[in-house]
Amino acid sequence: MTITCAIIDDEPLAADLLAGYAKRTPYLKLKGTYNSAVVAMKDLRENPVQLLFLDIQMPDFSGIEFAKIVPKDTRIIFTTAFSQYAVEGFKVNALDYLLKPISYRDFLAATDKALDYFNVLMRRNVCSRDRFMFVKSEYKLVRVRLDDILYIEGLKDYVRICLKNGEKLVSLMSMKKLDEYLPKPEFLRTHRSYIVHMPEVEAIDRFRIVFGDMFLPISDNYKDELQFYFDQHTLA
What is the residue-wise DSSP string for 86-135? Predict the structure, then answer.
């Protein structure tokens, strides 16, 4: 996978350093290096990139302010000489935060995180578009249609995919991987051991998921997300 990126830093030496790092990194495609946030704003609105290396302290306006106006699909790695901006940076959903002087080792660790993020996003988009996935079960790859899934249960190192026709597929896979892969909010984690296909939910009884005569628990860790989903689909 190739990730398009750009650099905004009012210090030319710092910008050039990051540009050199980007060119050394095989999966990055550098589309622009800017010493002015104003110039970058126009270019990036017309030609957005997937990843932006963004300095926080700049004369025109701060990187935090700039982060709020870039396209929502652009992810940001903040670069700064001041560690006190870290918390504020993560409030605007930054992927990472690099403290100057930045070594290539730290740069690569941050971009590897970005690569993981975009790989997960790509797989989720493909799964959502094509409406099926392949899972390994009993030494073969089995095609599973998303619309056939009722819920998924975690079994230590395995998962059990429970289908609407009563069939159950067991696969060596983590719940975390499936949770990342399946489209949201169509599939939501309700418990550390359960992912539920929300359009198939028949009822909620005492904040438990109801499938016929079966009840699946909802843990405190996932209550807020699920309550938001139910609120959106409930007629007052």
Answer: HHHHHHTT-SEEEESSPPHHHHHHHHHHHHHHHHHHHHHHHHHHH-EEEE
Query: Is residue 50 helix, strand or coil?
Result: coil
CB 28 within 8 A of CB 18: no
Start-end of H helices in the chain: 12-24, 37-46, 63-67, 86-91, 104-130, 175-181, 223-232
At position 85, the amino acid (one-letter code) is: Y
Mean pLDDT for 21-46 is: 94
Distances (CA, A) of 7 to 43, 44, 49: 12, 11, 10
Q: How far apart are CA 34 and CA 55, in angstroms?
A: 10
Give the separation between CA 156 and CA 144, rounded to whole angstroms. 21
Residues 74 and 51: beta-carbon distance below 8 Å:
yes
The radius of gyration computed from the CA coordinates of the chain, to the nearest angstrom, equals: 22
pLDDT at res. 171? 95
Within 10 angstroms of residue 114's Cβ, the number of other Cβ atoms is 20
Tokens of 137: 């079960």
For residues 139-155, give the mean pLDDT: 96
pLDDT at 129: 93
Q: How many angstroms separate the CA atoms of 64 and 94, rounded?
A: 10
How far is 133 from 39, CA to CA, in rounded Å? 43
What is the C-alpha to C-alpha distance for residues 123 and 181, in angstroms, rounded to an integer? Answer: 6
